[in-house]
Design a protein that fits this description.
The complex is a heterodimer of chains A (119) and B (92). Chain A is an alpha/beta fold. In chain A, 25% of the residues lie in helices and 19% in strands. In chain B, strands 4-3-2-1-5 form a five-stranded parallel beta sheet. The chains are: A alpha/beta (119), B alpha/beta (92). The interface between A and B is medium-sized, with 15 and 14 residues.
Chain lengths: 119, 92
């Protein structure tokens, strides 16, 4: 089965790209493709339990949780970006089932996918 | 290996993220505002050894540069299509 990675780099609040990445990722199951999502740069802010775009009328991130669990969609974040924004482990919403990738591992990690789309 | 397409200018962090992904034998193609990289004297130092760099000629000229200003190989749209055809995967 081909693997597709959606890498998101924009902030979770004020733009729709994280929700779009998951909408695209979940759509891949209908194409017999295996999706994964990677948060880099400001996108890592999404992983905090306290991150609630709906507070200012944007789409909630939590709407993705039941599908992440149902499909076991792998969600990754870059360690150095989590550190940059001082995001601690106990602040991360468990529903992401987040996996951490370091910057050194990124080139090989990204190349392991058949298709990579940057959002 | 992979063709990495960089669409954003050097001032955008995601461009640096993409250039850091490139492994030896990968090809990087600068398009849209990414062609500004082609005019940077140090562009070859921004990627690992063995990574080939290209830029889209039409976008480069449209931004007021002259072909001789380019530090990387310029390709036209047909050249872009060939790069996509030749490489195993695209990261963009």
């Amino acid at each position: 089965m081909k693997k597709v990675l959606f890498a998101v780099y924009t902030s979770p609040v004020g733009s729709i790209w994280i929700n779009e990445a998951f909408r695209s990722a979940f759509g891949m199951y209908g194409e017999d493709l295996e999706p994964a999502v990677l948060f880099v740069e400001e996108a890592v802010l999404a992983v905090r339990s306290s991150c609630k775009p709906e507070l200012i009328g944007c789409l909630p991130l939590a709407m993705t949780f039941k599908y992440i669990e149902k499909y076991q969609t792998p969600v990754y974040a870059v360690k150095e970006d989590l550190d940059k924004f001082n995001i601690k482990e106990d602040e991360i919403a468990p529903q992401w089932n987040l996996k951490i990738v370091s910057k050194d591992e990124l080139p090989e990690f990204v190349h392991s996918f058949d298709k990579v789309v940057i959002f | 290996m992979a063709l990495i397409i960089v669409k954003k200018s050097p001032s955008e962090k995601i461009s640096e993220f993409l250039l850091n992904l490139a492994l030896p034998q990968d090809k990087v193609l600068f398009v849209q505002d990414g062609v500004i990289f082609a005019a940077c004297k140090n562009v070859k130092n921004l990627v690992k050894e063995g990574v080939e760099l290209f830029a889209l000629k039409e976008d480069f000229i449209a931004r007021g540069f002259d072909e001789k200003d380019s530090e990387v190989t310029l390709v036209d749209y047909d050249g872009w299509a060939e790069l996509i055809e030749k490489e195993e995967k695209v990261i963009s």
